[in-house]
């Protein structure tokens, strides 16, 4: 648990501001935060615009964060958005590379990211798939998280044996299925990593996943597995007669006013890579965060039940003290496919939960501060330091 000071020392701020005068000609290094003084361009986007000052956020600290991002102190950060007190109060985009699996550092084309550009959000997809499972239960398509996964996998009954019949939907959501899976360890360019190796074998993806031996009793041990989430995507398809992309569009994205998304990563047989295959805009990510912050509602509409949101921010069983590879943020808990973390701020406990994606993709929900913070990035090889920005500048800026 980390203790945060309320402010960066004033003398540090003075030094930074003095340097900003010296480099006044460098607009990239020290941008003017017009967002804090003028309404954001929302284009009937479902958000109410606000300002940093109006919600008691120190704009000087946010300016310092932007300056350091532009100086490449945190590698590639592609966007940073702050939503507080039900207002979009800050939004900034930065140039960087598109993702390319076989590119150097997994980098492809260099572009100027903006509010309309879809971004691959990697494992943030897992948290969004979890939301879709919750909606499917709310709508009556799925009876319960405590059902066997094989209730919704009619084509794979031949693998319903050797204890695997005990695996429930909840076990998939919480990464406690007990199925052997190697995803943390080998690099994401290494075929020995199961989430990569699944693309380089001749079995259909669900067979590849479900043929894995059961190495722990379901519900007893955390093991991070994109394979679990891929199964969840197929459970949604079989329970609703709608593929994950169609279901999420109809029941999640449309109600949120998200008109641009793409489950772009699919296997040869059409199965969607539900654990990491979604492309969406940072504003779309922010809407999902705003919905979660408001107990499942957005613009007065109940999109998912409050009970499911509670599950997303409540640690499951023994899923604690987990360190996320490539993520400079310390230990976490894990819930229904969302990560949990606690801080101290001004002597008070601050609890947050967040969706995490490889490379610096984040939807960070902080109910205690009525705040959502969103990042996208391209830090696929170096450690993602988005939480350093959160710790050093954003949390201290919120008064």
Characteristic terms for this protein:
9-stranded mixed sheet; single chain; disordered N terminus; 2 domains; alpha+beta; globular; 399 residues; Beta-lactamase
What does this structure look like?
The chain is of the alpha+beta class. The protein has 2 domains: 2-114 and 281-297 and 309-397, no CATH class; 126-250, DD-peptidase/beta-lactamase superfamily (Beta-lactamase, 3-Layer(aba) Sandwich). 29% of the residues lie in helices and 19% in strands. It is built from 11 helices and 16 strands. It has helices spanning 10-22, 59-70, 124-138, 169-173, 194-197, 205-210, 226-240, 244-256, 282-293, 306-312, 386-397; strands spanning 2-4, 77-84, 87-93, 95-99, 107-112, 119-120, 261-263, 278-280, 297-298, 301-302, 322-323, 331-334, 339-345, 348-357, 361-366, 371-377. Strands 1, 2, 3, 11, 12, 13, 14, 15 and 16 form a 9-stranded mixed β-sheet that branches. The protein has a 3-stranded antiparallel β-sheet with strand order 6-8-7. Strands 4-5 form a two-stranded antiparallel sheet. A hairpin with a 2-residue loop joins strand 9 and strand 10 (301-302). Helix 3 (124-138) runs parallel beside helix 7. The longest helix is centred in the N-terminal third of the chain and has 15 residues, at 124-138. The chain is globular, with a radius of gyration of 21 Å. Mean pLDDT is 91; it is low at 1-11 and 20-38.
